[in-house]
Write a structure and sequence with these properties.
Low-confidence stretches: 6-10, 96-107
Largest sheet: 8 strands, antiparallel
Strand content: 35-45%
Structural class: alpha+beta
Mean pLDDT: 77
Number of domains: 2
Shape: globular
Number of strands: 13
Number of helices: 2
Radius of gyration: 23 Å
Distance between the termini: 21 Å
């Protein structure tokens, strides 16, 4: 009986992950230009020169090589989420909920641009990304925009109150940030590994095996 259990345990331990989500993370450079027309908005809410863009795109599989300005929504292996921040506000788009609609705090959120270009190794070399969260105008809630291309990073906030149509933005020109790629195994793979370790531990305990 022990031998079949040992075979099962080893199979679970060395089984390759079924799939792995791939996270593409962008970190921009600090804004070199900041504009502020706000009145009565706390300084802590305003974009400043030390702020910068961060973008996180989660896909069900790695980007294929040699894409040319390809829309992420069109990729068959799945855009799972698109989260971005300009340092003072964050917008997150989760395709599992709805393609475009009220998914953040009850306010509408839109992905205007989501295209990427990759090289022969599948690394992102060009991009046009923009996500917007439209605020409700109450309690200092603001419109929030994060937009990035290699030539221009832009963070934007616009408030309707206490003064209508006042805004604050940060821009960086011709100083593109960097991309990092992380693969995250599915929970199923981690569970198989855990089961395999438990089975091996019990076998070792029963048979007195020493490593």
């Amino acid at each position: 009986m022990r031998k079949p259990l040992l075979v099962v345990a080893l199979s679970l331990l060395f089984a390759a992950p079924v799939h792995a989500n791939t996270i593409y993370s962008y970190t921009g450079n600090p804004f070199t230009f900041v504009f502020d027309s706000t009145v009565g908005i706390p300084d802590a809410l305003k974009i400043v020169g030390t702020d910068f863009l961060t973008i996180q795109i989660t896909l069900a599989a790695p980007l294929p090589p040699s894409l040319n300005s390809f829309n992420l929504h069109s990729l068959g292996f799945g855009l799972l989420s698109f989260k971005a921040s300009n340092g003072k506000c964050t917008a997150q788009f989760i395709t599992a909920f709805t393609p475009i609609g009220p998914i953040q705090g009850g306010d509408p959120l839109f992905v205007d641009h989501s295209s990427v270009t990759t090289n022969a190794a599948g690394a992102i070399t060009d991009w046009d990304l923009e996500i917007l969260h439209f605020g409700n105008g109450l309690n200092l809630d603001s419109d929030c925009q994060i937009a990035s291309t290699p030539a221009h990073d832009r963070g934007f906030r616009q408030w309707a109150a206490p003064v209508r149509n006042q805004w604050n933005e940060g821009d960086t020109y011709n100083q593109p940030g960097v991309w990092a790629v992380t693969e995250v195994p599915e929970m199923g793979s981690a569970a198989l590994l855990g089961i395999g370790l438990v089975v091996l531990f019990r076998l070792r305990h029963k048979t007195g095996i020493r490593s």
